[in-house]
Amino acid sequence: RIGTAALAVQVVGSNWPKPHYTLLVTGLCRFQVLQLLKEKPYPVAEVQQLDRLEQFTNGHKSEEELGELSEQFYKYAVQLVEMLDMSVPAVAKLRRLLDNLPREALPDILTSIIRTTNQEKLQILDAVRLEERFKMTIPLLVRQIEGLKLLQKTRKSKQDDDKRVVAIRPNRRISHGSITEDEEEEEDHDDVVMLEKKIRTSSMSEQALKVCLKEIKRLKKMPQSMPEYALTRNYLELMVELPWNKSTKDRLEIRAARIVLDNDHYAMEKLKKRVLEYLAVRQLKNNLKGPILCFVGPPGVGKTSVGRSIAKTLGREFHRIALGGVCDQSDIRGHRRTYVGSMPGRIINGLKTVGVNNPVFLLDEVDKLAKSLQGDPAAALLEVLDPEQNHSFTDHYLNVAFDLSQVLFIATANTTATIPPALLDRMEVIQVPGYTQEEKIEIAHRHLIPKQLELHGLTPQQIQIPQVTTLGIITRYTREAGVRALDRKLGAICRAVAVKVAEGQHKEAKPDRAEVVEGEDFLPFDCKEHVTEDAKPESINDAADLALPPEMPILIDFHALKDILGPPMYDMEVSERLNQPGVAIGLAWTPLGGEIMFVEASRMDGEGQLTLTGQLGDVMKESAHLAISWLRSNAKRYQLTNASGSFDLLDNTDIHLHFPAGAVTKDGPSAGVTIVTCLASLFSGRLVCSDVAMTGEITLRGLVLPVGGIKDKVLAAHRAGLKRIIIPQRNEKDLEEIAAHVRQDLTFVLAACLDEVLNAAFDGGFAVKARLEHLNSKL
Ligand code: ADP
């Protein structure tokens, strides 16, 4: 309860980067707290003064009283001060003070100067009686003197002339080892020494070491209250932490890698083959300056998880860097240290996180980098990804080169269209197409369902999802190239089942349970009727009785699906929509995979205008104009007429073409053949076959040119239940990529010109028949 009254003389410091203040106070006297009046916002107390200040003015009296003791103390104090370097002004001043100050003040002053613990200092403060205070301080002085003697002995051998008080401070610790805890400043100083030691022992590059030593020299001279102190320290700490020379050992065995990849991922044969080739080359040639792999495909097809598997097979650390929406090049390269709040870029940060210099870095969504006023992050990535350059990657924050050549970079993207060409050029693109229905079913049963069961704490004894149900989810509740939505739907089912299982566990008595099962509410979960078309209702009726025992798994049938996921979101509407002329089915490619698209056309009286709707890009608009021009120039050949029987198709006629869905922007030349077919149907009044889909670019001469994304488009057509697909002849090679069972279900028409397209799109061909009919009628 004893404290020191003091007068604050000066406050220095700042709030940034963290609050750090230095207070200069002049001590006045000791006091004792009698009663605490209030604690907040600051303590207010009634105190009693303990030191009698008049003693100081009247020195002689007390000197007599203490006599011996004070004389002894004075001697020790002089001995101590004289051991220090008198040329230092602070020491000389202290020496003068010893003579000028009243003796009673000396114990307090010297205790504050010599090396003691806070506890010892507090004891001196607590000693109210002067005599007691002298007695307590003398041993401390003696200890300090002994310590200094020891120090001087050890120093003699070394030529060290810097004897300033500040400089010998850290070494004093040797004299009495246990003093560490409370002296923050000292501690900081020690930290700097430690940091220097770490820098010297770290395996950083020569250039980096030079910079660090320079910085640490500056740091030593810098007052801690300076904002730059914290910055420099952070910088040095990062430099020490970076894995300059630390790496994990690759364990590479192709056979094991193949097993890991196969176990983690079903299908994706092409991707797995390429990855294995890559790994095999790595096994043969140790430090491969390999190409950077870039997996391009729709979301949810397993690009990221393949990256993770590669890290697993190599036994390397894995780190994912999400680049979606990054629009500042400092995100990649860091800020210069001159900026407020500067920090290293994501690459260096990632290295610090993983702690080794050969991790697998997954650059996720490289196609979604954006440009802004803060520069182009894609340009910054160029240096990172170039195997010829990245051994000396320089982050702006570090300002020294770091070798990235050991890092294995894998990029992922949804489309290559938005990746800047220079960046694309540095990567080897591997297309990861969407999955077929059959593949999705396998993925669901091998990977997704077991994963979801585990996530929800369920066992296969509690829930059973037959393959037909999975197919139902895939066709009616999801429409995607990957399996993410499927995974979510399976999660929803598991959640619903978890509720039932948890409820069931509380029902001990069997009869109760039977009642619930028979009740209407529980219908979806018992296995009564309507499991699937091909399931046998009788056996399921039996199953209803069997469902009574508690250990019976809950079977997910279509009723249960409807109850949990709601009514089906997608329906097969193919045959329905083609019951009037002027509609054709096209195939479109989107970053989400392939899709089928109904192109609609209608005509009305007008002045020969063409209206296009459905958010079309320029290329698509051009395709529409091309299609109309070709049809107009060939109208006679095909006997196409407008409403009034004229071969000039646009005479007094307006045409409207629409491409659903209206909210999605579309572009590209591949809708050309679909537009021609759709318009041919409109002008001839004949229906396009309902089971035909088509894709291909057209020219004015009526040629059909090849287009991209054939595999995705074919898969989409297959998903939608179409039977015949018209593709450009020069795309024939792309069909090899398509799984055999999908090819079996479909008939492909390879068209080199528009005649062939029209012949295939209409029942019984187009050109010949149409002409004959017209000729007949004219006769
Ligand atoms: P992407 O990066 O392509 O968007 P992810 O790698 O995040 O997709 O994959 C989404 C989910 O789908 C993951 O949980 C992954 O395990 C699963 N998945 C995707 N493809 C497969 C596959 N072929 N086999 C097993 N699981 C898969």
UniProtKB/TrEMBL annotation:
Its main location: other. Its EC number is 3.4.21.-. ATP binds at G297, P298, P299, G300, V301, G302, K303, T304. GO terms for biological process: protein quality control for misfolded or incompletely synthesized proteins. Residues 1-145 form the Lon N-terminal domain. It is an enzyme of class 3 (hydrolase). Residues 578-764 form the Lon proteolytic domain. One of its GO terms (cellular component) is peroxisomal matrix. InterPro entries: AAA+_ATPase (IPR003593), ATPase_AAA_core (IPR003959), Lon_bac/euk-typ (IPR004815), Lon_lid (IPR054594), Lon_proteolytic (IPR008269), Lon_Prtase (IPR027065), Lon_prtase_N (IPR003111), Lon_prtase_N_sf (IPR046336). The keyword Hydrolase applies. GO terms for molecular function: ATP binding; ATP hydrolysis activity; ATP-dependent peptidase activity; serine-type endopeptidase activity. It holds the Pfam family Lon_C. It is found in: Peroxisome matrix. Keywords: ATP-binding, Hydrolase, Nucleotide-binding, Peroxisome, Protease, Serine protease. The active site is at S670, K713. Belongs to the peptidase S16 family. This is Lon protease homolog. It comes from Vidua macroura.
